[in-house]
Amino acid sequence: MSLDPKIAARLKRNADGLVCAVAQQRGTGEVLMVAWMNDEALDRTLTTRKATYYSRSRQKLWTKGETSGHTQQVHEVRLDCDGDTILLTVTQEGAACHTGDHTCFDADLLLTD
Amino acid sequence: MSLDPKIAARLKRNADGLVCAVAQQRGTGEVLMVAWMNDEALDRTLTTRKATYYSRSRQKLWTKGETSGHTQQVHEVRLDCDGDTILLTVTQEGAACHTGDHTCFDADLLLTD
């Protein structure tokens, strides 16, 4: 498999060949996490409908939940206006965060009304 | 002004000294846009409650809406589990996208159920 050339042509990758990816819970709209994708991660996400990212620390693809079971079933994929960010609408199984929190943004509130 | 050292110590900046920032509409939960912040942009966002980012292309701070009038009033600011992404809950005035779209993710749908 390789990424559809019509999509690949619209991506504006960073120096590491990656685009930013935001995962949002279907229905509630919660922002669950932000990670990175290379072309192959995006292709796998589109074709398998299981959210797949590129780990910058491990320098390899990872399908969300492959070890934890906390998978993300993908419903929608959107590319932003300048081609450097993907927005996924997903159904999150279990916790999105490796800490066990529902989202990666639950623990550290810097400002509130 | 400078960023609270207790917050600055928790940031995990990229090689350019930046963290990723996701702006989400209060109430609807729509993801409006993704941009970047350096320490000063985050400090200004926290202290003025007007979303302020760092432009990588222009290499300077920009307060969202300073020319367009399409400001973002900031209600909540959260830092993610690994310290490299900020989530803003905002009230968007007018269009978030420079194209005139409501969000930067409106125009290019790659996959849907």
From TrEMBL, chains A, B:
Classification via Gene3D superfamilies: Phosphoribosyl-AMP cyclohydrolase
Pfam families: PRA-CH
Record keywords: Amino-acid biosynthesis, Cytoplasm, Histidine biosynthesis, Hydrolase, Magnesium, Metal-binding, Zinc
Predominant location category: cytoplasm
Listed InterPro entries: PRA-CH, PRib_AMP_CycHydrolase_dom, PRib_AMP_CycHydrolase_sf
Residues holding Zn(2+): 81, 97, 104
UniProt protein name: Phosphoribosyl-AMP cyclohydrolase
